[in-house]
Design goal:
Layout lengths: L1 H4 L4 H4 L14 E16 L5 E12 L2 E5 L4 E16 L2 E22 L2 E12 L15 E12 L6 E13 L6 E13 L2 E12 L10 E14 L2 E14 L1 E2 L2 E10 L1
Antiparallel strand pairs: 1-2, 1-3, 1-13, 1-14, 2-4, 3-4, 4-5, 5-6, 6-7, 7-8, 8-9, 9-10, 10-11, 11-12, 12-14
């Protein structure tokens, strides 16, 4: 979700539109989100919620964008993760650099008041995380191609925008290939305040090692407040509302947003 949320900085810092739009040439964005995730249940093969080993995760995932040219924005994300699974009193912990993402967003142009972009990303996984047979393992490399559609228009006199991403992920490991459809709706009721409403939907294209088909639907809400110049703070919450072969995760998020 960092890729959806963090690129929307410009709507807080100024009246310019951003998000699925290109980063200004020569300009940087740096977003440092810190998240705390917990789960005590999971969704099984049939989609029914059931008890599971207690799972906790802390993550720091700095995200950087740089406007290389008028239509090309470079993307980088690094994540440090610590997770802990409590299985009948025994704790299984992993800690380290969990992933590195490298990619770009290429603006193709506008049509019907919507900006279209292509966003290729490569992800190198450094750790194996969580009680999830669909999770990537250390050393796996994923390649994703996404179409990004961005549109801004006022809603009841309030500045608003939407960013939609439809992506396909090819895994070189044992994890199945994935398709996702994510939507972020943004409202700016005040000059320095932005509300983000997020829907994140991911489905596997084949069964995993346990014979189940992974699917996850998450909803999220974030408040981003500009505090000084090009500095803003984010506070948010995300939760899985339905799924199969996935943990019932609940995530709290705080973040520091910078632009220069």
């Amino acid at each position: 979700m960092a890729l959806l949320v963090s690129v929307i900085w410009g709507m807080v810092a100024s009246d310019a539109t951003a998000g699925g739009w290109p980063q200004a040439q020569g300009h940087w964005q740096v977003i440092v989100p810190i998240t705390s995730t917990q789960a005590n249940a999971r969704y099984g093969i049939s989609g029914n919620k059931q008890s599971a080993s207690s799972y906790k995760k802390w993550e720091v995932a700095p995200y950087v964008e740089f406007g290389l040219s008028k239509n090309l924005t470079l993307i980088n994300e690094m994540a440090w993760t610590r997770d802990d699974t409590n299985y009948r009193g025994d704790h299984f912990t992993s800690e380290g650099m969990s992933r590195l993402k490298l990619g770009a967003r290429l603006c193709l142009g506008d049509w019907q008041e919507t900006t279209f972009s292509l966003q290729p990303l490569a992800t190198i996984h450094g750790t194996t995380s969580g009680d999830n047979p669909s999770s990537p393992h250390s050393g796996d490399v994923d390649g994703e191609m996404a179409i990004v559609m961005a549109r801004s228009a006022p809603v009841l006199g309030i500045e608003a925008f939407s960013v939609q991403e439809v992506g396909y992920t090819k895994s070189t490991g044992n994890a199945p290939d994935l398709v996702r459809a994510d939507v972020t709706l943004g409202l700016k009721p005040y000059q320095d305040t932005m509300l983000l409403i997020k829907s994140m939907n991911t489905t596997a294209l084949s069964v995993n090692a346990s014979g189940g088909l992974y699917q996850s639907t998450k909803l999220g809400l974030s408040l981003v407040q500009n505090i000084a110049g090009n500095i803003a703070l984010e506070a948010g919450y995300e939760t899985v509302i339905t799924g199969r072969e996935t943990l019932n995760e609940k995530t709290w998020r705080v973040g520091l947003w910078l632009q220069f």
